Amino acid sequence: MTVSRRGVLMGATAAAIGGAGVVGVRGAGQATAQQAEAQQAGAEREPVEFTWWGNHAWQIRCGKSVVLTDPWLTRFHTGTYSAEGADPATRIVSKPAVIDRYVTTADAILVHHAHYDHLPDVPYIARKTKATVLGNETHLNLLRALRAPSDQLSQVTGGEYLPFEGFTVEVYKSLHSCGGKRHQFAYPGTRPGAVPPKPRTIADLVEGGTLAYVLTIGGLRILSLSTAGFDPGALRDLQVDVVLAAPGGEPGVTDRLLATLKPVKTVIATHWDDFDQPLDKPAVDWGGLTKLRASATAAGSEFVVVDHLKSVTF
Ligand SMILES: [Zn+2]
């Protein structure tokens, strides 16, 4: 790890931008619901299509149901994966013309944390699609400050079981990844209470706490993690079919994740691309993919890498 001239821990920034987890103990009722859904999953599977828009931006579709995770497509230049690190004074922009090329409909938007590579396009996409937006108090306050439609925002904390038409969402408390000698991540902080001033720079978009989600759609159970960090207390023995897993974080974190969950059939790499590179070109690995693949393979999981704008169907 090196400290850039901007005082940002380099490897830590990259790892810190890329890593996820959970807190909270599942109650018996929730476990029962999960088991019932798992049984149902085996009986009634429908094709579920995952389309990757880079970073942790996924469109997950089954029939007419569409769920988006941290949909960020604008990709203004930040220098996050450069030797100098990201400039905290970088202005936030959201470009509808870019978003409109890819985003058509959505029923729900799952906000995992509030960093600049996750949140800035959510207000426009929410308004365009009329989707319900799930996030914690800080995520939603920052979205309100960015002029998101307030009546579509649903505040969650972890522990919720939310049935939608065509899918269900379970919310888990989580942790952002950290890294470096001092185990840091970029722009920590929260914005509880009153709506803060409108965020203008990437440093204004504090992490705000991290959530994880289990989306059950088409009979497939998908754990979505926006960074490599996770909380074993919350995910212990969780049963899912697919994990969206990010590289980076502390050494061995993905090995611990996969040992915490019940055996997972498929690991799909997420948040592995350098997002200063264009979305309409093949993704450029920022350097974490090899380790992620090794962890998935060692755990006996199928490892899947999807390129920019490509889809995979399960
Ligand atoms: Zn982050």
From TrEMBL:
Q: Which domain of life is it from?
A: Bacteria
Q: Which InterPro entries match?
A: Metallo-B-lactamas (IPR001279), RibonucZ/Hydroxyglut_hydro (IPR036866), TAT_signal (IPR006311), UPF0173_UPF0282_UlaG_hydrolase (IPR050114)
Q: Which Pfam families match?
A: Lactamase_B_3
Q: Where is the Metallo-beta-lactamase domain?
A: 54-271
Q: What is this protein called?
A: MBL fold metallo-hydrolase
**Organism in which the protein naturally occurs:** Kribbella alba
